Amino acid sequence: MSDVAWSEGRWTHDPAHVEVVGDGLVVTARAGSDAWRTTSYGFVHDSEHALLTAHEQDTAFEVSFDLDFSNQFDQAGIFLRVDPETWIKAGVELSDGVENLGAVVTRGESDWSLSPVPSWAGRRVTVRASRAGNAVTIRARVDSEPWQLVRVAPLDASAVVHSGPYCCAPSADPLTVHFTSWRRAAADAGLHPDG
């Protein structure tokens, strides 16, 4: 596994503020920023702050951040983008006052899934996106606890994909996230652990 330099990525939309602090990156998301397409709400939001670089086939990326959210729909994690209508965001989102681990998979329209993780508040979260075959496998963990499977989603093996850390602040208040690392590794060997 190797570190990805923060300077390697390019923002989809510039955050309100970005600062390198030690080895980490502190990012302030603009109030009202979000990524969503149509489903249930009827709107398209394309204003997320995602720092992306090329995500080759048979490669995994990991993004770590300190979880400290306070406003409805505050969110951070990893973002994978093919084009404006084909993308995935996965990580933790504050929904109705509870931290939730989840993903939004978008192919024309968005598909959202969540699972409550209130015990993760105030801790370090790592989200991993592993690209192999015709899929991307999303896993996450808190601190050094075991990985949890978040989502397996189709992803064309021939697609040009860019991925990296992201955050959004859909409410009326900005959000500041401390990203502690961004790393690249070989893709996971399989979907399930041996044994």
UniProtKB/TrEMBL annotation:
Pfam families: DUF1349 (PF07081). SUPFAM superfamilies: Concanavalin A-like lectins/glucanases. InterPro entries: ConA-like_dom_sf, DUF1349. This is DUF1349 domain-containing protein. It comes from Nocardioides plantarum. The lineage of its organism: Bacteria, Bacillati, Actinomycetota, Actinomycetes, Propionibacteriales.
